[in-house]
């Protein structure tokens, strides 16, 4: 199985982070909007398509802020993710003017049950994946200088 590229949107507004909401046997958890790059798309095209599909908004894509790898065999979900190797490119994004109906889009992520704004001040209390990135987001918004490449983290 090959390495999959994925583009993710980090959307922060009024002290809150926009995330898609999913549910599993352990309860609710959250992910950044975005998804897999398709053949012939650049990462910006991927991210625009995925944001329309998952959160029903058009985004202005800013700087690439983090690159994260996920090599499934190295993490807690290895039983079902052992073959997964994904590289995620996380871009700082803004919702374009005129996007008023934030919510589940036309092609939601598998298992998606909603869209939520998570307060940055409480971000560490949420099951947001990748979990390690929660602290990086808080530090980035606070203006701390951070590495772009985060390595194989979850």
UniProtKB/TrEMBL annotation:
Protein name: NUDIX domain-containing protein
Pfam family, one: NUDIX
Record's keyword annotation contains Metal-binding: no
Cofactors demanded by this protein: Mg(2+)
Organism of derivation: Virgibacillus tibetensis
InterPro entries: NUDIX_hydrolase-like_dom_sf, NUDIX_hydrolase_dom
PANTHER family: GDP-MANNOSE MANNOSYL HYDROLASE, MUTT_NUDIX FAMILY PROTEIN
PROSITE patterns referenced in this protein's UniProt entry, alphabetically: NUDIX
Sequence ranges assigned to domain Nudix hydrolase in this UniProt record: 2-141
Keywords: Hydrolase
């Amino acid at each position: 199985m090959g390495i999959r590229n994925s583009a993710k949107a980090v959307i922060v507004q009024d002290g809150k982070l926009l995330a898609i909401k999913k549910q599993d046997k352990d309860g609710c958890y959250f992910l950044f909007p975005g998804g897999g790059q398709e053949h012939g798309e650049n990462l910006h095209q991927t991210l625009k398509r995925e944001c329309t599909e998952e959160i029903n908004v058009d985004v202005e894509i800013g700087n690439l802020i983090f690159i994260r790898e996920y090599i499934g065999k190295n993490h807690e979900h290895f039983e079902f993710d052992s073959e997964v190797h994904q590289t995620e490119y996380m871009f700082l994004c803004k919702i374009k003017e005129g996007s008023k109906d934030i919510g589940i889009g036309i092609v939601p992520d598998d298992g998606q049950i909603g869209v939520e704004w998570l307060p940055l001040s409480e971000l560490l209390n949420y099951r947001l994946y990748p979990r390690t990135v929660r602290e990086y987001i808080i530090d980035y918004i606070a203006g701390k200088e951070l590495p772009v490449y985060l390595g194989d983290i979850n």
